[in-house]
Amino acid sequence: MKRYFLILFVALTGINTSPVMAQEQAYEMMVNGVKVIVQPTKNDIIEIQTIIKGGVQNYPATKIGIEAMAMSALTECGTLQRDKNSFKDALDRVTAQVYGSTNKNYSVIRLNCLKPDFDLVWPLYVEAITQPKFDPKEFARVKQDAINKLRVEQSQPDEAIDKFADSVAFAGRDYAKDPAGSVPVLSKLTPEETRTYYNSILTKSRLLVVVVANLDKATIESKVGAMLSGIKPGSPFTFRKESFRVYKNSFSSQKKDLATNYVEGITGGPQPGTKDFDAFSVAMRIFGDRHFVDVRTKNALSYAPQSWFSGGATAVARVSVSTTEPNKYIAVFDKLVDSIKTKGFSADEVANKKIEYLTGFYYKNETNAAQASSIAANEVLHNNWKRSLTMVDDVKKLTLDQVNNAFRTYIGNTVWVYQGDTKKVNPVLFINGTLKKGENPVNH
How do residues 184-197 score in pLDDT, each as one tens digit? Predict the structure, then answer.
């Protein structure tokens, strides 16, 4: 489900280190004008990630989806050296992976293989990055697949409410853009236009390379250096982070014929790299537990109420429910937030959540791929890949006051969106709040 990816993303950007990652001393070096971060390992799995920074900052709203199409085309349209089937067959013979993907913050081009196969797979990886073909026939197939996927998502309420929330909360900002694109925009994209776009962002100024593998420094320098030799430097690029603060509650709705109603709220959160980020990550996990208990267990208002911290370039806290009684939900939500802001979390809650948080982190970061993703996210979003090696200690040091203060600071006015039966919701309760003296809003 959508939430699991976001929770994992926050985990990767929020608490990224473990004894697994500290097997040997991680280091960085500049190779041909690009930062290369290396985490040595003792296993035979090689994971290499080439990052193109920027994400939705790289293109206008009129071209949403163009970077996602480019990333898919790198391996789905063949290269100048071989067609798509030959490329795929070469990977399949050694059970290796080479593919690209994108999100709102950056794109990733991955290589994953066994060490004995590295010399066979590396040339394929270099071809995909530096010699993509953008074959018209294959591009048309990839584009149609992307359009079909978008149409399926439009029919899924969970996806639809997320995209509606983004379009309202981030209106006029880069984060309003959907990296997957839209049907009208994708329908007009050509392979030539997409190739030109890809070449414009494939610059050393935007690149970062992360290597998690048992490879010596000289080998990494030689191979990565050769790959980068033909890539242009590009104009200086700065990855932008934007604060998100809601100054008054708002409510936007869309009438839809659904079995239930969908509500989502977006409010502020601390930027990556700031002192409150870790404390707020823990606070939102505790709030998520309380939110679930109050909404589902105690009041039976939603089957799967969710809340999470999305810690990207525009960091926000989000809550989401599907419910037949939206007016009762907002009353429960208001009461819960007011209680936490007034009384705070308990010392036991914070202590237990820190342990749970770190245990989950250890488990998730056992693979080379997860470790590479962790390093990349911390470098791009926090400007500090070494955070991957210090986060466990940082989280352990968090105090009850820090966690409570972070929640009080950032949870406040909210952008509310709603899809469903508009006759069943009272916008005033979402805009003005429900906590008024002498009034029981649940009964109104």
Answer: 999 999 999 999 99
- Tell me the per-residue pLDDT of 221-248, one tens digit each, with 9 for 90 and over: 999 999 999 999 999 999 999 999 999 9
Can you give the C-alpha Rg of the chain in angstroms?
23
Of 429, 413, 399, the closest CA to residue 283 belongs to: 399
Q: pTM to 2 decimals?
A: 0.91
Contact between 64 and 146 under an 8 Å Cβ cutoff? The reply is no
Cα(384)–Cα(394) distance, integer angstroms: 14
Sheet of strand 106-114, all strands in order from the earlier edge strand to the far edge:
27-31, 34-40, 207-213, 45-53, 106-114, 97-102
The answer to whether residues 256 and 217 belong to one domain is: no
Count Cα neighbours of 296 within 13 Å in the Cβ-side half-sphere: 15
SS3 274: coil
By three-state DSSP, how is residue 99 classified?
Answer: strand
- Domain of 184, CATH number, reads 3.30.830.10
What whole-number distance in Å separates Cα of residue 99 and Cα of residue 394? 34
**Residue 433 structure tokens:** 């709040």
Look-up of token digits 């040997």: 24
Tokens representing 37? 């971060």
Rounded to 10 degrees, what is the CA torsion of 214, 217, 218, 221? 110
If asked whether residues 221 and 264 sit together in one domain, one would say: no
Count of domains observed in the chain: 2
Give CA–CA dist 69/76, Å, rounded: 10
Decide if 94 contacts 121 (C-beta within 8 A): yes
Residue 356, domain extent:
250-443
